[in-house]
Amino acid sequence: MSARAAGPVVLALRGVTRVHGTGPTAVHALVGVDLDVRLGELVAVMGASGSGKSTLLNVAGGLDTPTQGTVVLGGDTLSSLDAAGRARLRRRSVGYVFQDFNLVPTLTAAENVALPRELDGVRAREARQEALVALDEVGVADLAARFPDELSGGQQQRVAIARALVGPRRLVLADEPTGALDSTTGEEVMRVLRARVDAGAAGLLVTHEPRFAAWADRTVFVRDGAVVDGTGAPSGPEVLLAGGAR
Amino acid sequence: MSVRQGLLALLAEGPHHAYQLRAEFEQRTGGTWPLNMGQVSTTLDRLVRDALVEPVEPSDDDVVRYRLTPTGRDELAAWWRTPVVRSAPARDELSIKLALAVSAPGVDVREIVQTQRTETMRALRDLTRLKADLPVAGTREDLAWSLVLDHLVFAAEAEVRWLDHVEARVARAALDRPVDGDVPPGPTSAPEAAHAARSAALGTEDGAR
Question: Interface pTM (ipTM) of the complex?
Fold first, then answer.
């Protein structure tokens, strides 16, 4: 992972506010959030339970709609589309990775990865080809014919990453992707996610594990629905051992 | 960190001269603990004095090589066998700063915690980048360096987790505080917050995981 030139913005949130309910009992899940995620960039979101980080991920992926503000996905403003258009955009440009893998148990790894492309309307054979490419990109091409219950947790999560970024998809939203994995396997999965993003994708990662968030280019901290701070992008190499790891 | 045992470990692999020892030590520990030649010479002198190491008799050039004596070998074997004792915590600036902050008037502990968390997260990210650049299936030297990096990574992670914990404890101490009007404000709050910080620092009460 080397310093990258800033790519085009894949996901942009501007003044995003999400309020549940009204009046005195209203809950402000998100308050005026601005966030850009560029191609080649992995951004981690950290915050305590209830801080709004999951809402942020849902709004970013078009699963939830902001009360105010805009979400721009790959150049299209979500709020300017009707429900069908939003669903189409969400389906074609965003992939999800969850803590518990969420692979379809009755489909092989290749079929799981091909599924979103078939839903896109791509012919089965072409979808399968794309799936094999996507599996190869995460280093599990040899597991294409296996069913999820024949795969380890780390392997299943690799398949899930392949599925999230199959075909033209460029944005992966990952919700605690290492939550069900041991320390070493979690690190391997982060390495794969990092490599996929470096190879031409954008990623937004919600995690409460600092060690896994550290694979991101930068971390933003959410508190009471607002982004309160961020690490900023890495400056350059070899800055840390000099002044020191205490 | 014991330079003494480190040099014994390297000499067990064969005779070395002082410059080789310094270079090897730094390479094997990933340059995390740079040594100067003075430290290496002084340590070698003491090892010779204690009969753990001896100079190798006449060499082709003028450079003196050293090797382990049987006693040195025993001392090294004992080092491998014995766990490293966890010493009393060093005076850590961060824990002192937070302990003082929770009981100081007009200091926003939450901001101190957040500023530190961002800084530590940045260091953790940079360490992870160094790690990511290492080949997954590398040489034994890569593995050695990677494990040293892991140690720094886990230490930084522990600090972030502790900061999360401090934030939660301080927030709870603020909530538990009697409402103004019931009891005179101020004096009651500081000791509670200080207590919260103290138990967070020592990992007692619900601080122990």
Answer: 0.83
